[in-house]
Amino acid sequence: MTLFQIFDILGIFAFAISGSLVAMRKRMDPFGVFIIAFATSVGGGTLRDLLIGAQPVFWMKNTDVIFLIITAYFIAIFFRKKLKYLNKSLFLFDTIGLGLYTIMGTEIGLSNNFHPIIIVAIATMSASFGGVIRDILCNEIPVIFRKEIYATACVLGSITFLILHHLDFNETIIYISTSSIIITVRLLAVKFHWSLPTFYSKI
Amino acid sequence: MTLFQIFDILGIFAFAISGSLVAMRKRMDPFGVFIIAFATSVGGGTLRDLLIGAQPVFWMKNTDVIFLIITAYFIAIFFRKKLKYLNKSLFLFDTIGLGLYTIMGTEIGLSNNFHPIIIVAIATMSASFGGVIRDILCNEIPVIFRKEIYATACVLGSITFLILHHLDFNETIIYISTSSIIITVRLLAVKFHWSLPTFYSKI
Amino acid sequence: MTLFQIFDILGIFAFAISGSLVAMRKRMDPFGVFIIAFATSVGGGTLRDLLIGAQPVFWMKNTDVIFLIITAYFIAIFFRKKLKYLNKSLFLFDTIGLGLYTIMGTEIGLSNNFHPIIIVAIATMSASFGGVIRDILCNEIPVIFRKEIYATACVLGSITFLILHHLDFNETIIYISTSSIIITVRLLAVKFHWSLPTFYSKI
Fold first, then answer.
1. What superkingdom does the record give (chains A, B, C) (predicted)?
2. Is C73:C20 a contact under the CB 8 Å cutoff?
3. How far is B150 from B145, CA to CA, in rounded Å?
4. Residue A202: its pLDDT value, please?
5. Mean pLDDT of all residues in B164-193
6. Using CB atoms, which residue from C112, C117, C145 is nearest to B28?
């Protein structure tokens, strides 16, 4: 099993947990929770596959993805009472998913020989789209438009990946550096309420 | 004309009626009503074709679909005053569409040799997606997240289809059994307020 | 550079400006404004490419599109204080984008040999979809469902294009006539509060 496959599995798993948690917070019925878990988990990768024309999309060719989501779903349900700090768990799993999906998006963009700026766009879209669908379906303001730096962390991570790749670092170092940067930027952004500078005058 | 084609036509027709009725209840203008009828009718099949990579999507290759939707649209407008029991008519057409689209989705999944669990997922998504888009565009809570069993009926129907298919029953029996199960489950669910058991403690 | 390419560039540019303006009116942060500019600008063409199966979608094959959007974004930000009449500017750029995208959609539909009714549908969807995504992401009622004639202008423009094309007029005449009709219909519709006749009785 390659490092890519391990990160792939962990990303799908983390987003499935994050989707289940948001849906349970909204007190959806068991099927609704599963739909949200599924949409959050595969949403970004499905958009990526549609845009580059890699159909049938990834989860149709590999049933492991479905069983992985089902497992994450039951774990989220089973441990829901232990998850006293639901918001913290949710934030953690969402951030991990964000980091791992950015790596997968960048990797797939590279293997398709797209221009670097397109690769960063694909990576950012595939990392953040799952969370956006989740929030739209749950009727929350999409996480991407809330104050803290979110998609910006993916952009920074994807650029880091491309630079290290260009400098011929090996895969393990690239993957670990990229995910560390994304997770760190996101954690610090939320902790210290970082946000992008605004160009509106104070009212 | 095969039974598949007849069910296909009826499914498109039923969803076009259901879309027109929801849009008229929202008092949209004639063009808005047509857009909603179109999106409800072709939405599920378009998603299905995009995900499996069958492009151009079905309604681009077959103009009959467009004329069928136009016909349904005018029928809905013409009979709108007879439709005193608008909610009941809407529910009926939506349920018929749900049953027929599940059959088509399962059939197409089978002919692409997907794994059974993927086939059930495709059938359920293509059957319920039209109604979800309709409700999002009309600013209603998507039907799939309301209390009564909805997508669950598609899952049961699609599994029934696959079992009967595996047991070598003929197409007519499979189609009629599948649609009967979906329509019956949905009717009973609404009549008796069935819903899935919940795992939240009472507040 | 062909007339088609010039119109293509202008359409992308106009929609990127219109997206930036709506996002700034919502006081989004700089990255949010860019996402909205991007989604508005490429949304319609991306949907078109997905439906007809022309992947990777257009902006992945041509990085000029990205740099064009970035330029439009900075122009919108830079001139935001001069844009006292933000609503008027927004309306103008949205209308120009609508006209140009209708032409591109019709042209691409023709080159794929679709049936005329399908071509009109593709042109209308690709012209109006960018504005619809923009409005959904910004939590406004989609422009297509507001009172004034919107998608109807695209339908009229696309039909005009097809008739002139059938009568063998040259490209320049077709492009200028089509965009003039769309822009004029839309301007007059807003000025005189034109809307489609309704079939609901007064309440």
1. Bacteria
2. yes
3. 8
4. 45
5. 91
6. C145
Instruction: Report residue B146 as tokens.
Output: 């309301």
* Res. C26: pLDDT tops 90: no
Cα A67 from Cα C201, distance rounded (Å): 53
Burial B67-98 (b: 16+ CB within 10 A, else e): ebbeebbeebbeebeebeeeeebbbbbbbbbb
Torsion of CA B27, B30, B36, B41, to 10 degrees: 130
User: Which of A20, A22, A24, A31 best tests the B interface by mutation, with the highest count of B CBs <10 A?
Assistant: A31
What's residue C81's pLDDT? 74
Spatial CA neighbour of A96 closest among A6, A196, A35, A167: A6
Region B93-116: mean pLDDT is 92
Helix (H, G, I), strand (E, B) or coil at C115: coil
Mean pLDDT of B164-176: 94
Nearest to C185 by CA among C144, C161, C157: C157
Spatial contact of C155 and C193, defined as CB atoms under 8 Å apart: no
CB C195 within 8 A of CB C145: no
* A187 in C contact zone (CB under 8 Å): no
Q: What does the pLDDT average to over A18-30? A: 86
Comparing CA positions, the residue from A107, A51, A99, B141 lying closest to residue C60 is: A51
B53-61: long-range pairs with CB below 8 Å, 24+: B53/A53, B53/A55, B53/A56, B53/C53, B55/C50, B55/C51, B55/C52, B55/C53, B56/C51, B56/C52, B56/C53, B56/C112, B56/C114, B57/C51, B59/C118, B60/C51, B60/C52, B60/C114, B60/C118, B60/C122
Give the whole-angstrom CA distance, residue A43 versus residue A38.
Answer: 8
- Other Cβ atoms within 10 Å of B190 Cβ, number: 16
Tally Cβ neighbours within 10 Å of residue A61: 14
ipTM of the predicted structure?
0.83
pLDDT, average across residues C86-106: 85
**Over chain A, what is the mean pLDDT?**
86
**pLDDT above 60: residue A77:** yes
Rg (alpha carbons) of chain C, rounded to whole number:
17
Band of the pLDDT at C147, cuts 50, 70, 90? Answer: low
Q: Which of C31, C67, C82, C139 to mutate to test the interface with A (most CBs of A within 10 A)?
A: C31
pLDDT at C202 over 50: no
Where residue C56 falls (left for φ over 0; alpha for ψ -120 to 50; beta otherwise) is beta
Residue C83: pLDDT band (50, 70, 90) is low
Kindly state whether B144 is in contact with chain A, defined as any CB-CB distance less than 8 angstroms: yes
Per-residue confidence (pLDDT) for residue A146, from 0 to 100:
65
CA dist., res. B126 & res. A176, Å (int): 39
Q: Which of A119-133, B126-140, B152-166, C125-139 has the highest mean pLDDT?
A: B152-166
A residues 112-131 lying closer than 8 A (beta carbon) to C: 112, 114-115, 117-118, 121-122
**Burial class for C12, CB neighbours closer than 10 Å (0-12, 13-18, 19+):** buried
